[in-house]
Write a structure and sequence with these properties.
The protein is of the alpha/beta class. Helices cover 55% and strands 11% of the residues. The chain is built from 21 helices and 12 strands. Strands 6-7-8-3-9-10-12-11 form an 8-stranded mixed beta sheet, with helices on both faces. Helix 9 runs antiparallel to helix 10. The longest helix is centred in the middle third of the chain and has 52 residues. It is globular and about 90 Å long. The two termini are 27 Å apart.
């Protein structure tokens, strides 16, 4: 699977009147496409701080002291607010614990759903125009350099096709939007005609008639549709009598008859507007007999044979030229990174001057090797400069503090050499990561399929052209909002669209918040304890909804909770956090069936279920004061299995399997053999039996 998000060596503290709180201490994890990562731990463990760092909404007293959050070729720790505004809510959305705090109590739900759509729609139009123009300019330059003939004339045709095609598509979507509105209003009128006052339903019928003036399109409903015109006239004439007498049988019959051709129009296939634009421009438009599939086949054949096949081949030549230049530089970069690493040997103190020299040289080379034409950004290459510079700067600050500490023995900002070792090792890790990434790319260079890449580029350009014309009107936003409300399971969405937050239950408010988070079709959804304030029945419904949306929308999800039981049936991977560190990391099966850290055991032992007859184990003591983090394992004071070394030194992450890691000295080869508590082992055995009975699902 492709990585959607990478968090590497993240360190975040907070200034307080009592001192600096070390909230997140050097954590790392990946989030794959379509995956759910659960971050589990007690309050104050750093879960929500991590989520807020990803969203760029840390408090003003936050001190981001190190690390990276890599998304779409950018380090979210280093971009400005203007760039973050394009990502937050659009590409990465978040659901908070208390839904009422996320909603404006004096603004109707409908307006809260639609206002962001309208504002983001305008911004997305501007961004699509910029991206389209930039890619066209780069692509044309590479094609000319590759020796492609008549590049300017080819792009003149292509630009005319995308301009005309996207505008025709815009008009089509506008008409379709009105038909969708009519169908929803008809459904509403039919449902409400019995229960509502006649004047309210009559107003809905008038909206149906008003929308009907903007529905005519040769590929949906033709202008001269006599049957529909007749039904609209009948409805218009029937409204006064309905309003006066309140008898809905006649109007209901008209509405049902009217709905059939409207729904039939919505079920028709969509025309290929770009092939159509080419056929119009080349005077090769076939005759339309009402069969859209047949029309598309004829138009595509003409478009492909006369222009698109040759254009794709030319695009492929440009992409290959751009890729070849990038690859020719990457082999040299691998050698330079190896040289840099040989000057910064593991186990030896790195000379700061050498670190700066190598960072500058390698950054310049990598920046020069970037393939700006590639649709999929190489996150390692794009973020290398900011990452290595941050690592060098942090190392320099650590050296300064160490020097001051030698002059003043009371200075304890850095407690020992482990901090220095950590920061200098981050420099090496950045270089190793880049070298390994480039070596892997060089090894797969011959496997690139430029025919597929050119198809992908043409499709990408057409999509961006469509977005330029994709205006989000109030009516379109309203239709979309009602669809979202229905998608998240809100009954009578049309009616509730105009209600206020206080008119919804806690579970329904959380569904509204989920709908708002999904409005921009994000890649990543962060759920920060979204079920904590809800009763158990509603919790299950919300979890089931999030699971369903993940599959349908191919979302990547970060789910934050203090309750392992909540994520038993939804997490793919689980990171257990304690005192700002990830103490155990693995797949859901590994964490539930083979837990390795005493803190994970404690969480499992304190988790209630219907079958446990023994008294649950409470975790003794309280979390440590993170102004003065423990020298050893932070859980040692509460851990009945703790050894002397736990009090003196932090354990490293021991590898259990390729996907399972835990930071506990109990995994050291010389450590005594310790079994999890009986309540945990009994539960594991019971879960295994239930798992077999349920066909492979963890039963929490």
């Amino acid at each position: 699977m492709a990585k959607k998000l990478e968090v590497k060596n993240l360190i975040i503290s907070f200034r307080t009147n009592n001192g600096t709180v070390k909230a997140v201490r050097n954590i790392s994890f990946d989030l794959e496409r379509g995956e759910t990562l659960a971050i589990v731990g007690e309050s104050g463990s750093g879960k929500s701080v991590t989520a807020r760092a990803i969203m760029g909404i840390l408090a003003k007293n936050a001190l981001p002291e190190g690390g990276e959050i890599i998304y779409d070729g950018q380090d979210l720790m280093k971009i400005d607010e203007e760039d973050f505004h394009k990502i937050r809510g659009n590409r990465i959305s978040m659901i908070f614990q208390d839904p009422l705090s996320s909603l404006n109590p004096i603004v109707r739900i409908g307006k809260q759903l639609t206002e962001a759509m309208i504002l983001n729609g305008k911004a997305n139009q501007r961004e699509a125009k910029r991206v389209y123009n930039d890619k066209i300019k780069l692509l044309a330059s590479e094609m000319k350099e590759a020796g492609v003939a008549d590049v300017d004339s080819k792009f003149k045709i292509f630009n005319n096709v995308t301009d005309d095609g996207s505008k025709t598509e815009r008009d089509y979507l506008y008409n379709r939007e009105r038909i969708e509105s009519m169908v929803k209003n008809i459904d509403g009128a039919l449902i409400d005609s019995i229960d509502k006052e006649p004047k309210v339903v009559a107003a809905e019928m008038k909206r149906i008639i008003k929308d009907s003036h903007n529905i005519y399109n040769p590929f949906l409903i033709k202008e001269g549709d006599a049957e529909l015109h007749g039904l609209l006239a009948e409805l218009q004439n029937a409204i006064p009598a309905y309003r006066k007498e309140g008898s809905h049988e006649q109007t209901d019959e008209i509405l049902r008859k009217m709905r059939e051709p409207l729904q039939a129009a919505l079920d028709l296939p969509k025309p290929d507007f770009y092939a159509m634009a080419y056929c119009k421009l080349s005077n090769a438009m076939p005759e339309f007999n009402g069969d859209i599939d047949q029309l598309n086949a004829q138009m595509k054949q003409t478009f492909n044979e006369q222009f698109l096949n040759d254009f794709r081949e030319s695009v492929g030549a440009g992409l290959k030229n751009s890729n070849d230049k990038a690859f020719s530089k990457k082999s040299v970069i691998v050698e330079s990174l190896d040289t840099a690493l040989s000057r910064m040997k593991e186990g030896e103190r790195i000379d700061l001057k050498v670190a700066k020299e190598e960072a500058k040289k390698c950054s310049t080379m990598i920046e020069d090797s970037l393939d700006r034409l590639s649709i999929h950004k190489d996150s390692v290459a794009y973020t290398f400069k900011s990452s290595i510079n941050a690592a060098v700067d942090t190392y320099q600050e650590a050296l300064k503090v160490e020097k001051k500490r030698h002059l003043n023995r009371n200075q304890k900002l850095f407690k020992d050499r482990m901090d220095i070792d950590l920061y200098q090792n981050n420099i090496r890790l950045d270089m190793i990561r880049a070298r390994d990434s480039f070596q892997e790319q060089l090894g797969s260079a011959e496997q690139l399929n430029y025919e597929e890449l050119s198809d992908e580029m043409v499709e990408f350009l057409c999509d961006e052209a469509s977005k330029r014309e994709h205006e989000v009107t109030k009516r379109k936003a309203q239709i979309r909002a009602i669809e979202l409300m229905e998608e998240v399971g809100i009954p009578k969405a049309r009616e509730r669209y105009r209600q206020y937050p206080f008119e919804f239950s806690g579970g329904m408010r959380q569904r509204i918040v989920i709908a708002i988070a999904l409005a921009a079709n994000p890649d990543i959804l962060i759920c920060d304890e979204p079920t904590t304030a809800l009763d158990v029945t509603i919790q299950a419904q919300i979890l089931e909804l999030i699971n369903k949306l993940k599959v349908e929308r191919k979302l990547s999800i970060i789910f934050i909770t203090h309750d392992l039981g909540v994520v038993a049936n939804m997490a793919d991977k689980i990171a257990v956090m304690y005192a700002g560190k990830i103490v155990e990391y693995g797949t859901a099966d590994e964490l539930f069936y083979e837990p390795a850290h005493p803190y994970t055991w404690a969480l499992l032992a304190s988790m209630p279920d219907l079958d446990t007859k023994e008294k649950l184990d409470a975790i003794p003591g309280t979390p440590p004061n993170m102004i003065f983090p423990p020298q050893g394992d932070a859980f040692a004071e509460r851990n009945k299995y703790a050894m002397q070394i736990d009090l003196e030194e932090q354990p490293p992450m021991f590898k259990i399997t390729d996907t399972h890691y835990a930071a506990t000295w109990l995994l050291h080869p010389d450590a005594p053999k310790v079994e999890p508590p009986k309540i945990v082992t009994d539960r594991i055995e019971r879960m295994k039996k239930l798992n077999e009975e349920n066909g492979g699902e963890i039963n929490g």
